[in-house]
Each structure stands twice: as structure tokens, then as C-alpha cells.
UniProtKB/TrEMBL annotation:
Allows the formation of correctly charged Asn-tRNA(Asn) or Gln-tRNA(Gln) through the transamidation of misacylated Asp-tRNA(Asn) or Glu-tRNA(Gln) in organisms which lack either or both of asparaginyl-tRNA or glutaminyl-tRNA synthetases. The reaction takes place in the presence of glutamine and ATP through an activated phospho-Asp-tRNA(Asn) or phospho-Glu-tRNA(Gln). The lineage of its organism: Bacteria, Bacillati, Bacillota, Negativicutes, Selenomonadales. Heterotrimer of A, B and C subunits. GO terms for biological process: glutaminyl-tRNAGln biosynthesis via transamidation; translation. This is Aspartyl/glutamyl-tRNA(Asn/Gln) amidotransferase subunit B. GO terms for molecular function: asparaginyl-tRNA synthase (glutamine-hydrolyzing) activity; ATP binding; glutaminyl-tRNA synthase (glutamine-hydrolyzing) activity; transferase activity. Pfam families: GatB_N, GatB_Yqey. HAMAP family: GatB (MF_00121). SUPFAM superfamilies: GatB/YqeY motif, Glutamine synthetase/guanido kinase. It catalyses: L-aspartyl-tRNA(Asn) + L-glutamine + ATP + H2O = L-asparaginyl-tRNA(Asn) + L-glutamate + ADP + phosphate + 2 H(+); L-glutamyl-tRNA(Gln) + L-glutamine + ATP + H2O = L-glutaminyl-tRNA(Gln) + L-glutamate + ADP + phosphate + H(+). Belongs to the GatB/GatE family. GatB subfamily. PROSITE patterns: GATB. It is an enzyme of class 6 (ligase). Residues 330-477 form the Asn/Gln amidotransferase domain.
Length: 478
């Protein structure tokens, strides 16, 4: 491609507070429509907002985790625009003096680490939710639910440093991971508590000036972020190659069709007529409070990844997969704390455990096999009590019962055969019963050895020590 892709991301994350940002209404998701509302969040005449202190604390926490500077003085502003889901006809947000500025985070894409600048983190209230009769483009009507109005948000605005849809996806994944680690948001994209808008433009390679950008909305999964941006790259490139020009506009991602569709033109920069919110006092942050919040931050994903690589010898890939989720990393640390081999624990977590969880559509917190029980299973493998193959059978039994691995092994008679005399006798029997396979192996057909090993394992119901089987078989055949 003769064009360079330029992407900036705005991530909107609802904060995990019990009440809204300026009133005492519940933030509970899934309540009956228009029940978690009051005169304040509905913007009725004569009401006054009061800031939720926990929102400020969470915003500072997010800013510090994203390597931002916390401004000692910030304020709220009114962002004026009309839309049916905005009952006050303005959104209380932050404009020129946000809570946090000038941060960054590092992402890994295709084995390369890249630093992405973060312009700002600011607080604002969420709008209501329009419920369409179909897709946004095809609806005959829309209803509005104001339950979400006033739910506290932070908006995280990146610099235009992203250069591919893959980088954009990795960036949003990293933001989600960090917010989960510091426990300020549940980040449930399917419930709308983590959403993102992407600004994307193309420019000729080597050109310093940015091209005309479009904004893509309605992307509520990592997959949609990447697919939406990939489509927009192709669409813009086609327009430019055909001699056309890109129109500055807001577009929506239509997942059913796999395309972006135009929502509204933004030919000129929209004037929101920002002005300071007269009903809220400015926020003056005590440096001591900032340092106390900084000291309370947990071990973040990058630091945890480095620890797993350094202390346990995990590869960068394995450590990255495990530490992407705080809950998964906590589960892993508990396995290792229960004396399991760290590398074996990682293999089991990313292998059988992940397979069973995905099949059952469960999260790691819902895993029926706890860290201590899994550590007990790994210990049996390490001691040679059972083979890795038998361990998978034991794990399946553990998944559907609360029994320890050692109990299952004993009850089902699954202890590995390690007596060389017993294994040798079975090897002799299999060799005698399969002369053709023996001849094939001696003729250079390596697959014949696998067949003979399989016959031995079949006779022992998988209990024979695989290493001993292979060693004895080769000794007798060579």
C-alpha cells in the first residue's frame, strides 16, 4: 500500500461505582427501563449536582496506571449538543483542564513493542441509551432508556500514534487489562461498560500532514475494532485511488454486513460551546492523596509479565497470555504458590483449563477445578505417578467432581506402571504379535514405531511410562 494508516482511539469506560456521578441513583445494569433515574440525572429544573468522590479517586487511579500526570486543579465543563439520549441537552464533561494528561502505554504487536501516547484522561457522565427497532441504519423508530444517564465515565484519548488495525486492537485490549487490574471498571463490553470510537485517516507514505479522518462508532468488541478499521482502510484507499476525496464524517460499524455506514457528516469541526460548569466547584487534588493512590496500585500487567518471565522462566508469549487478565494471573500465582512447577502450570492453564472453560463458556473465576486441586494433579505428573495422557483423563473427572487428583487416581487404578520388568514383558508380547510392523521399522518406516508404542499403551490402558516404553522398544528393535 502507498498509504500510511493513522489511527487515534477514544476509550470510554464506565466506572465501577454503586451510584452515579452527580446523584445517588443506582448504576446497576439491566434494571427495568427508566427506573434508575431522578430529577438530577434527568436534568429537571432547580436541581444541583454533587460530585461522587469515588469517581475522582478512580479517575486519578486510572491516570496513574496509564503513566499520566495528575493535574492539581481541574474542572467540569458543559459540552452542549442535542441528542435524544441527553435529557439536559448538554453533557457534563471536562475540556481544557482534565484530571490527567500526557500518559502512555506500551503494546506488543508481531513481536515488537511500541509506545502509544495518551493525550488525556477525563471524567464525564454517560448519556442514555437509544434502543433501536433494528440496526441503526435500518430502524423505523428508537426508544430511549435514561438508566445509563449519569453513570460515571472516564474517557481515555490516545495520540494518533497507531499505525494498523492490529495495533489498535492491541491498544484497546491493553487498556481493558489495566482497568481490570486496578479494579475501577468491570469492562464488560457486551454491557457497554467499555466502548471505543476510532478516528482513522490515510496519508501518502512520507507525508507529514494528516489526511481527512473519519470516526467509527458502535464497536463493542476487540474483533469489531480490528474488522471495522480494516474495512475503513480498504474503503478510504479505494476512494483515494479513484481520485475521490475522503469526507469527514461519523460512521457506524454494521457487524451483520461487515461494513461501515455513514451516520452524519462532520465536514466542519463541531462547536460544542464548552463553558465551565457553574454548578460544580473545581477539583483541587492534594498531592498526598495522589501519592497514596499511587502506592495502592497493584502490580500492573507489564510488571507482572516481567516477573513471570524472570522468576519462572516463562516465554514472553506465555507470560503475556497469562497476565492479560488479572483474574487469570491471580489463578496462576495460586497454582504456583501451591508448589506446582511454574512452566507445567502455564501449560495446563493455557491448554486443558482454557479448552474446558471455552467449551463451557465459563470465566476463570467459575472454573470448578481450583488452583490447589490443579497443583495436586501437576504434582502427580512430576512424581511420575501418572502420565500426561492419564492426567487429562483425571482432569476431566476433576471437572465434574470435587475429588482430589490423588483420590481419582487411586479409585480408578490409574497409577503409572514404572516397573521395567513388567513393561519389558508387554513390549516382548507386542513385538511378537506384530512382525510386519517390526519389519517396517527396521526398513526405515518410523511410523511403525508409533504403532507399536500405541499397542503397548493400549494393553496397559495408557498406564505404562511412555519414556520407558520408547526406550525399551528401541533397545529391542535396534
Amino acid at each position: 500500500m502507498d498509504y500510511e494508516i493513522v489511527i487515534g482511539i477514544e476509550v470510554h469506560s464506565e466506572l465501577k461505582t454503586n451510584s452515579k456521578i452527580f446523584c445517588g441513583c443506582s448504576t446497576q445494569f439491566g434494571s427495568a427501563q427508566n427506573t434508575n433515574v431522578c430529577p438530577v440525572c434527568l436534568g429537571l429544573p432547580g436541581v444541583l449536582p454533587v460530585i461522587n468522590e469515588r469517581v475522582v479517586e478512580f479517575a486519578i487511579k486510572a491516570g496513574l496506571a496509564l503513566n499520566c500526570s495528575i493535574l492539581p486543579f481541574s474542572k467540569f465543563d458543559r459540552k452542549n449538543y442535542y441528542y435524544p439520549d441527553l435529557p439536559k441537552n448538554f453533557q457534563t464533561s471536562q475540556y481544557d483542564l482534565p484530571i490527567a494528561v500526557n500518559g502512555y502505554l506500551d503494546i506488543d504487536v508481531n513481536g515488537q513493542t511500541k509506545r502509544i501516547g495518551i493525550t488525556r484522561v477525563h471524567m464525564e457522565e454517560d448519556a442514555g441509551k437509544l434502543v433501536h427497532s433494528g440496526t441503526i441504519a435500518s430502524s423505523d423508530y428508537a426508544l430511549v432508556d435514561y438508566n445509563r444517564t449519569g453513570v460515571p465515565l472516564i474517557e481515555i484519548v490516545s495520540e494518533p500514534d497507531l499505525r494498523s488495525p492490529e495495533e489498535a486492537k492491541a491498544y484497546v485490549e491493553k487498556i481493558k487489562s489495566i482497568l481490570e487490574y486496578i479494579d475501577v471498571s468491570d469492562c464488560k463490553m457486551e454491557e457497554g461498560s467499555l466502548r471505543c470510537d476510532a478516528n482513522i485517516s490515510l496519508r501518502p507514505r512520507g507525508e507529514a500532514k494528516f489526511g481527512t479522518k473519519t470516526e467509527i462508532k458502535n464497536m463493542n468488541s476487540f474483533k469489531m475494532v480490528q474488522k471495522g478499521l480494516e474495512y475503513e482502510v480498504e474503503r478510504q484507499a479505494e476512494v483515494l485511488e479513484d481520485g475521490g476525496r475522503i469526507v469527514q464524517e461519523t460512521r457506524s460499524w454494521d457487524d451483520s454486513k461487515g461494513i461501515t455506514v455513514s451516520m452524519r457528516s462532520k465536514e466542519q469541526a463541531h462547536d460544542y460551546r464548552y463553558f465551565p460548569e457553574p454548578d460544580l466547584v473545581p477539583i483541587v487534588v492534594d498531592p498526598a492523596q495522589v501519592e497514596a493512590i499511587r502506592a495502592s496500585l497493584p502490580e500492573l500487567p507489564d510488571a507482572r509479565k516481567q516477573r513471570l518471565m524472570k522468576d519462572y522462566g516463562l516465554s514472553g508469549y506465555d507470560a503475556g497470555v497469562i497476565t492479560a487478565s488479572r483474574l487469570l494471573a491471580d489463578y496462576y500465582d495460586q497454582i504456583v504458590a501451591a508448589k506446582a512447577d511454574p512452566k507445567a502450570a502455564a501449560n495446563w492453564l493455557m491448554g486443558e483449563v482454557a479448552k474446558f472453560l471455552n467449551s463451557a463458556c465459563l470465566s476463570i473465576t467459575e472454573c470448578p477445578v481450583g488452583p490447589e486441586r490443579l497443583a495436586g494433579l501437576i504434582e502427580l505428573i512430576e512424581k511420575g505417578t501418572i502420565s500426561s495422557k492419564i492426567a487429562k483423563t483425571v482432569f476431566e473427572e476433576m471437572w465434574s467432581s470435587d475429588k482430589a487428583a490423588a483420590v481419582i487416581v487411586k479409585e480408578k487404578g490409574l497409577v503409572q506402571i514404572t516397573d521395567s520388568g513388567e513393561i519389558e514383558a508387554i513390549v516382548d508380547t507386542v513385538i511378537a504379535a506384530n512382525p510386519q510392523s517390526v519389519a517396517d521399522f527396521k526398513a526405515g518406516k518410523d511410523r511403525a514405531l508409533g504403532f507399536l508404542v500405541g499397542q503397548i499403551m493400549k494393553q496397559t490402558k495408557g498406564r505404562a511410562n511412555p519414556d520407558m516404553v520408547n526406550k525399551l522398544l528401541k533397545q529391542k528393535l535396534l
